[in-house]
Amino acid sequence: MTVRQLHLLGSPVLRQRAVPVAAVDDAVRRLVDDLFETMHAAKGVGLAANQVGVAQRVAVVDVGEDAPPPLVLINPRILQSSEVIESAEEGCLSIPDIYGDVDRHVNVTLEALDRDGHPYRLELSGFKARATQHEIDHLDGILFLDHLSAVKRSMLLGKWKKSRKGQSGYVKDVTPEPAGEL
């Protein structure tokens, strides 16, 4: 497994619609493993392939809940969404230290392929549903900022530009914290 570089706001791949995975092979499984490794190293709860520079419909979600366990989302599709909407603060590993309240469906039913290419269908609720919707948005080239009002988005983009002053490029190394002493 490899910790990959994260693509940051401004990287064109974040705005690309990811292409479906034709077949789940060793390369796709390696990508899944790398996404989990990178996500955990960056202390995130979800990561889409776009965020590591790969425009394929692959994402992972691990919000720390056992049921269901961490999700592998290959070619995910939301089949049904609840009418109930909830607003909550979201952030993104590709836009560090920027947060905004986003409306999301409380419950979703999705279908996807797992790490071995087997199809599955799953009903999600709460934080896991929110994180999954966020990652599927990434696969469609949509960022959480796109769900905000124009005024709020403009304010947060100004804050982002100010925080990036003097920095160039749109990729960031992720450095896992060293293991603690036992």
Question: Strands, helices and their partners?
Answer:
Blueprint: E1 6-7, H1 26-41, E2 46-48, E3 58-61, E4 71-81, E5 85-92, E6 95-105, E7 107-113, E8 119-125, H2 126-139, H3 150-163, E9 171-172
Antiparallel strand pairs: 1-9, 2-3, 3-4, 4-7, 5-6, 7-8
Structural write-up:
By secondary structure, the chain is of the alpha+beta class. The chain has one domain: Peptide deformylase (Peptide Deformylase, Alpha-Beta Complex), CATH 3.90.45. It has three helices and nine strands. The protein has a five-stranded antiparallel β-sheet. Strand 5 (about 85-90) and strand 6 (about 95-105) form a beta hairpin. The protein is globular and about 45 Å long. The mean pLDDT is about 95.
List the main descriptive attributes of the protein structure presented here.
182 residues, alpha+beta, Peptide Deformylase, 5-stranded antiparallel β-sheet, two-stranded antiparallel sheet, 30% strand
